[in-house]
Amino acid sequence: MARLSPDPTLDLPAARAAVEDELGGPDAEFDARLDDALPVLHDLFLQLYGERADGREALAAVVASAAASWRDRPDDLRALDRRRLAEPDWFLSEKMLGGSIVVAATIGDLSESLIKRDLGVKDMSTWLPGHGGFLDRLDSLFPSAVIAYAIFLLVA
């Protein structure tokens, strides 16, 4: 058993050995991801395990589990991973914005309907009778605007 060292590069050989044991040899694509992710993962394990004697083994076990998941990952998802690595801002695309707004709008509409049901009313106001009231026209707009603004802040 070995403790984690303060320097992640000193624990990298143990992690690589666990990967090679799990995958039956080196995997350049997984190794590149491991090089990127290990410093963050190592810091988390240092916080979690600190001076425990089995820290390095626990880290290696988690990395081996990730390698097994990578090995079993379907080819189409691996291709998607490669595209996302090539385009790191993929989540800022118009499809992600549109999908987020659709989800927020649906949640807003369902939430307002739930409130009306709990109150036992059909229309929230008399401004637009037969349409569920004025709030029913805006219930999707409010949460959608918040999500759109949050994404705008992320992008700007």
List its traits.
156 residues; Rna Polymerase Sigma Factor, Chain: A; mainly alpha
What do these coordinates show?
This protein has 156 residues and is an all-alpha fold. The protein has helices at residues 8-23, 28-49, 55-72, 75-86, 94-119, 134-138, 141-155. It folds into two domains: 8-86, RNA polymerase sigma factor, region 2, helix turn helix motif (Rna Polymerase Sigma Factor, Chain: A, Orthogonal Bundle), CATH 1.10.1740.10; 90-155, no CATH class. It contains seven helices and no strands. The chain is elongated, with a radius of gyration of 25 Å. The relative contact order is 0.09. The mean pLDDT is 84.
Written as H for each helix and E for each strand, in order along the chain, the element string is HHHHHHH
Strand content: under 5%
Helix content: over 70%
Low-confidence stretches: none
* Number of helical regions: 7
How would you briefly describe this protein structure?
The chain has 156 residues and is mainly α. It is 73% helix and 0% strand. It has helices at residues 8-23, 28-49, 55-72, 75-86, 94-119, 134-138, 141-155.
